[in-house]
Amino acid sequence: MQEETVAPQMRDTARITALIYLTVTGIALIALLLVGLSPWEAVNHAMSVASTGGFSTRTASAGGFESVSVEIALTVLMLASGVSYVIWWRLVTGRGLGIHTVELRSYVLFVIAIGILLAIGARGSDAPGNVFDGIFTAASITTGTGFTTADPDLWGEEARLLVLLATASGAMVGSTTGGFKVRRWLTIFGGIRAEIQRQIAPQRIVVVRIGRKPITDDAVRAAFGFMAVAFVALVMGTALLAGCGFDLLSAFSGSLACLFNVGPALGQLGGLESYSEVPDSGLLGLSFLMLLGRLELFTILALFTRGLWRAR
């Protein structure tokens, strides 16, 4: 993946990244204090939402506050945390969005669309909760934060499919989120479109673009390679959990949620459930999936190649 940095030097990039993270955390802390959280809970949830970690001081996660104002604040903060740090830096320094306009628009529109559809599902079901639970769930799952306020399993089969789509999507490259990332999907769709055009007109030179930005062939191959490795890891994780006695939906969604660092899954591993029933062998496999996804797949797989160790 082609990825823009906030500064040319690694030290400057690390410094600016830390500054943006601390700023986001500070804004989150103030917002959560304003909606009524205690200082202890506000600090914990501010750090959790800024890093899209999803850990909560409440057993029922964000739903334990039973406050729409808290849910609204967390939703906005989760969406903001899913935005690339490069964008925040460019906006602060007055440089505009640059090449990130299409990615940001796609990210926002995707969350809105999933949120509206989930809200419709929540309203049409007999499950307890409110319409905003659907929007909250869309933001939480897409950004990989993993806060929960309701159980999407109770909203019907369509809601389950939407949750899986949100889990597989991820937010923006350059944010604190895990997942596949929007830019990879844009690159893959662009690569598929370009290949179709080549099949129609073999002599035509087709360039994959995101907006007006051309994407190199290496970046396209990397995106497809990432998808292939993710698919293999997902199949292996699903087989492992199925072998541990979980139904196919739980096994698949649990593996997907761990690989893309989301947390809540569906079925026996749903948002209001936990992974405590997974045996040690399954937990070991899921731990590897989480590490694999957090380090962008290829980084951890490179450790198992002889070429890396020979080079040293």
UniProtKB/TrEMBL annotation:
It is found in: Cell membrane. GO terms for molecular function: monoatomic cation transmembrane transporter activity. This is Unannotated protein. It comes from freshwater metagenome. It is a multi-pass membrane protein. The chain crosses the membrane at residues 18-37, 72-92, 104-122, 161-180, 219-242, 283-304. GO terms for biological process: metal ion transport. Keywords: Cell membrane, Ion transport, Membrane, Transmembrane, Transmembrane helix, Transport. Pfam families: TrkH (PF02386). Belongs to the TrkH potassium transport family. The lineage of its organism: unclassified sequences, metagenomes, ecological metagenomes. InterPro entries: Cat_transpt (IPR003445). The keyword Transit peptide does not apply. PANTHER family: TRK SYSTEM POTASSIUM UPTAKE PROTEIN TRKG-RELATED. GO terms for cellular component: plasma membrane.
